[in-house]
Each structure stands twice: as structure tokens, then as C-alpha cells.
From TrEMBL:
Organism: Cerrena zonata
Stretches assigned to the NTF2 domain: 15-154
Pfam families noted in UniProt: NTF2
Domain of life the protein comes from: Eukaryota
Protein name as catalogued: NTF2 domain-containing protein
GO BP: nucleocytoplasmic transport
Length: 156
């Protein structure tokens, strides 16, 4: 088993910071249906409020049903998982999200059962694993990851 060093934890936290900023900016953009699925692989799993979706196509199918959104991340935490170099990452994010026509994203999606324009608290947990197809990074650099598991849940 690989022991994590302080440097591993520092790199993991930088990766988590970059990931969560990029993920929610993409999720809230008008191009999300094309761009967000690129972060997943065919074997990735997503659970959205208890409903399972599988792989890139499952993510794309969910996004096409969702109204426009605006996420505000209030906190996140990252736990590097020992066993590989770079380590896999468990990232837990919490914040608020608004769905509906008054967001900045494309609102052409069909309406959902979520009350439009009302902020809701969410919690999202990601398991990121190093992308074996990505170019190797130099020591101290943030690795390229993809989402292997994703669980999204409204809290309130």
C-alpha cells in the first residue's frame, strides 16, 4: 500500500479545487450537454437523487432533461485514496443550486419538477481516478482525472 505524503495531499487539494471550479462552470454553461459528459467514461456511474445513470450516454440523457442551472459551491473537501500514483480522489462538494429560467445557462430544456428560481441545498460526491490515456504530468503537477462515480443529492 502506498503511503500518502503531505505533497500528495497538497496536489490532491489543488486538483479538487480546479476540478470543482471547472465542473460547475461547465454544468451551468449552455454547452453542458456536449462538454460535461467528456468528464465521464462508459463505465462511470451517476446517481442523481437516487436515480441511476450509466456512462457518458446516461449523463447526457440526464442533462437533456434538466432545466438551466446555477450552482454556488459553499465548501468542498478532498480525500486522496492511497494505492496509486497519482492517487484516486474522493471529493465531497456542498452548496446551493437554482434551476429555472432566471439562470445564466440555456433554458431550452423541458421543465422539471424542481421549483423554478428557488435555491436548493445540494451535496455531491465524486470519485475521480487518474486517466490512463492522459499525458503524464511532471512531479508536483495536477494529474488528469475522470469521474468514475458521482452521487448528487438535494439536502433540503
Amino acid at each position: 500500500m502506498t503511503t500518502l505524503t503531505n505533497k500528495d495531499i497538497e496536489i490532491a487539494m489543488r486538483a479538487a479545487d480546479q476540478f470543482q471550479k471547472m465542473f460547475y462552470a461547465t454544468y451551468d454553461s449552455s454547452g453542458r450537454i456536449e462538454e460535461l459528459p467528456k468528464l465521464y467514461r462508459p463505465n462511470s456511474s451517476l446517481s442523481w437523487n437516487g436515480k441511476p445513470y450509466q456512462g457518458v450516454e446516461g449523463v447526457r440523457n440526464l442533462l437533456t432533461k434538466m432545466p438551466a442551472s446555477k450552482h454556488e459551491v459553499q465548501s468542498y473537501d478532498c480525500h486522496p485514496i492511497p494505492g496509486g500514483q497519482p492517487p484516486s480522489l474522493l471529493i465531497v462538494v456542498s452548496g446551493t443550486v437554482v434551476h429555472g429560467k432566471n439562470t445564466q445557462a440555456n433554458s431550452s430544456a423541458p421543465p422539471s419538477k424542481v421549483i423554478d428560481d428557488q435555491p436548493r441545498v445540494f451535496s455531491q460526491t465524486f470519485m475521480l481516478v487518474p486517466d490512463p490515456d492522459a499525458t503524464k504530468t511532471a512531479a508536483g503537477e495536477v494529474a488528469k482525472y475522470y469521474i468514475t462515480a458521482d452521487t448528487y443529492r438535494f439536502v433540503g
